[in-house]
Structure formats: C-alpha cells, structure tokens
Amino acid sequence: MRSFRTALSVAAVALAISLAGCSTAATSSTSTGATGTSTTTTQQAVTAATIEDDTHYDSDDLSWDTAAEVAISLSDGGSRVTSSSSTGVAVDGNTVTISAAGTYRLSGSLSDGQIVVAAGDSDTVRIVLDGVELGNSTGSPFVVQGADEAIVYLEDGSTNTLTDATAHSDQGEDAPNAALYSMADLTIAGTGSLAVNGKFNDGIVSKDGLVLASGKVTVDAVDDGIRGKDYTVLLDGAYQVTAGGDGVKADNETDEGRGWLMVSGGALTVNAGDDGVKAFNTLTVTGGTVTVAESEEGLEAQHIVISGGDVAVTSNDDGVNASGGSSTSTDTGAGMGGGGMGGGGMGGGETVGDYTVEVSGGTLTIDAQGDGLDSNGNATISGGTVVVNGPTNDGNGALDVNGELTVTGGTVAAAGSAGMAVTPGTSSRQSGVQLTFDSSVAAGTPVHIVDSSGAVVATFVTTKTIASLVFSSSAITDGATYTVYTGGSSEAKAGVTTGSIDGAEEQGTVTAGQYPQAQGPGRR
Fold first, then answer.
1. What is the torsional sign of CA 427, 361, 273, 325?
2. What is each CA distance from 398 to 11, 88, 279, 301, 471, in whole angstroms?
3. Start-end of H helices in 287-369
4. Partners of 277 in the beta sheet?
5. What is the secondary structure of 109-156 as a DSSP string?
6. Taking the model in full, what pTM does it have?
7. CB count, 10 Å around CB of 257?
8. Strands 481-490 and 446-450, how do they pair?
9. Which of 162, 400, 431, 505 lies 20 to 30 Å (CA to CA) from residue 227?
10. pLDDT in tens, 231-259
C-alpha cells in the first residue's frame, strides 16, 4: 500500500421538514480555476415547518363521524348504496360515481368496473376501502376526476386490491394511466392494506400533491410505481414498490418550488428498472427507512438532503446522483489539487452546476456499480454515517464531485477502484485518510486504521473487491500518522465497525489530511 410515519400516528408530521415555498436561502461558494477565484450559488434551503403548512395534508381529515358515512356495496351488476343516505352517489352498471364531499365506505368487488370521484373543486372526498377488489378491462378502476382533496383510507384489518387494464382505451392528454389515478390532491392513509397493480403504465398517480400518510401498500407497475406531481411525501406506513420505470417520484418540472419529495417516516422499499427515488427539485430524507434494492440510479434530484433515517441504495449506475433540474453552472477551469486537507475535490475542466448532496445525519449506505455518491455540483457531509461500496472499474469513483466535497463531521467510508478517487476538499474541517492498495483487497476483508499507540481507531469491512478507501471521522487527527492493516477480525461483516488486528497483515502507513492519490471526477 502506498501512503495514503379515525387518527393515525402523526408524530412524524410535527417533526417534518418542508421544502416547498422555502424562503430561506443557503449559499455555497466554490473555488474555481487555478487562481482560486470563487463563484457563489444561491439555492433553496430547508426550513423548519410542518407538512400541514406546505401541503394539502391535514391530520384532522383522518377523523370523522362514522354515523354520517355513506355505505356502498360493490358487486358485478348489483352495486348499491346500503346506508339510509345516497347523497352524492350514482350507480350506472358497474360504474359508481361520487359527486359530493363526504365519507363513503366501500366494500365488495367489481371485476370490470370503476369508481369515479367527480366532486367540486372545494370538496374533500374520503373513500374508505373496507375489503375492496376492483378491476377494469379497458382502463383504470379508480379515478379522481375532480375534488379539492381525495383521501383513500384503508380500514384496519382490510385487504384491498386495484388492478387496471393492460391496454387503456382512452389515451388522450390527462387520461388516467394508472390503477389509482387522481387529478386532485391525494392522501393515502389508514392501517389496512392495499395492493395496486399497474398493468398499463403507472401504479399510483396524483397530478397534484401526494401524501402517503400510512398504510401497508404494495405497488407493482409496468412503468412508474408511485408518482406525485407537485410533491410526494411519505409520513408513515410500509410501502413496497416494484416498477419497470422509476420507483417513487415527484416530477413537476415547470412550477417553481414544486417537484419535491420527502420521506420523514415509515418504510419504503423499491425495486426499480430505472431510478429508485427521484425528484425534479429536492429529495429529502429526515427519518424512516428507505431501501432501494434495485435500480439504475438509486436517489436522483437536483438537491439531495439526508438529515436522518436509514437509507440503503443498490444501483447499476450511480447510487446517489445530484443532477437534472434547471441549473446555472460554472466551469471550474483548472480545478483543485495539492496536498494536505485539500487534496481532492474538483477535477480539471469539470462544470460545477447548482446541484448538491448534503448529509447531516442518519445513515446512508450505497452499493453502486457506477459512481457511488455523485454530485454535478458540490457535496457536504456534516454528520451521520456514509458508507460507499463503489465501483470496481477505474472509470467511476466511490465519490464523484464536480465541485468540492466538504467534510465537517460524521463518518465517511468510501471504497472502490483507485482510478477516480475523490477526497475531501479545502473547506473540510474534519480530517481523513486515503488508502490506496498495491494489490486488491478481497470482499469481506476488514481494513483497520491504527494510531501510533496501537489502538484501532476505525475498522471497515468491504463488500466488494477494492483498491482504495477514503475514510474520515472525528477519530482521525489531522497530520497524525496511522498504520493500516488488512485481515484480523471485525464485529460486523460489512461497513464501519470495530475490530482487532490480531492475525492481520500490516500494509503500511498514511498521514491524515494528505491525499496524494486524489483525482478528478469520473465520467457521467
């Protein structure tokens, strides 16, 4: 080695961080060119507010007078209103149309039918699914054509299924293209379960805002799994998405401050043929669990913010990718270089756009075949734990930052190939070490960083064969010399852990803050 988320539990709501309509700005400065001139970029910043301030969501909408419910029994050729009131409900064959505000409890099944919500623009329509199975042979079985807000509430203990046609007869503009399709703000809540089978295109779509407040929901879609427009928010519940396209997304590309996605609680698991979790504007994780088990790119947005929760990403290409969106950019010119704590960061001639990755808490674990943590602008790590099991080919890097990678706290362990190694830049206040091995280190091998007293200050276990490791934590003292060992034992089988060098092989020494093998970003 060379030196080197009735009432649901809404506790999460009060703690949520809103990204829409943010008024506070953050600025980040990027040094550019050989002369060190700087460009300051202003971006939308996260402000402390509840989701109820910045979305359609209101937790009071999840409590109601059950005596006022309108009960509807569904059956092929015999659907009927079974309560004393039939206000706002029309049955025509196998189509049930709801046209007024209120609470409607549905049970039974339609093998080839449709629920249509066609209410007024100021109406809140609450649909309680209490053991419902809906199918449709020519289109979508559940369509919200008009309302202020539609709430799909999953009754406790119920199992519900929505399946659309494999081919839709109406394919005009704004025609339903999902098994659950809404032109109004949509909330999914309750503690029951819902299976959504999007056999034509998407699974769940809101052409406005979408809040996933609770529920046990599985989505299997030909194209996108869950898609909100202005915003998509996961507060609580368990959502499992299998999608041929993107897994979960917010895709408003035209309205300023929209197109954002946030996870503040619950559990989300995604298997996607394209991007796992995606936002046009900002993607934020403040709590809960996000698992992207399969994807091309795992998390993608113009700005990616992780301040809590547990995020695990597996990708065929980039793991976390700050790109897309509309952006101003700056040519970095000659780029940064040098030794000390400024060895890594910008590559010569790369463009630094208005893209950011910010990690200040939680855990982020990446397994990427392309770049691991990739920003087409800057990246900042100030807390939490970031573990990257990056590429094995030299054309990509575990860390790939066009601008500067600033590390001021937390723990970072980025392992992968040695050809495109990016390390902390000059603004970093926390030191680290760069290890570049003369021969590959096999998957499952513990790598130990040992201080001058013989104490193991860090142990990392790789899940792939690696040629380099960039490690930073508060345990590393800038300027101090550390001895590196491979082998021995470890408490955990992967990631940052504790271990012993008994039986390990010494590889050499490294000085903290010196990144001699740092190079520019890899290809995008």
1. negative
2. 36, 57, 22, 18, 12
3. none
4. 248, 299
5. EESS-EEEEE--TT-EEEEEEEEEEEE-SSS-SEEEEE-SEEEEEE-T
6. 0.87
7. 17
8. antiparallel
9. 400
10. 999 999 999 999 999 999 999 999 999 99
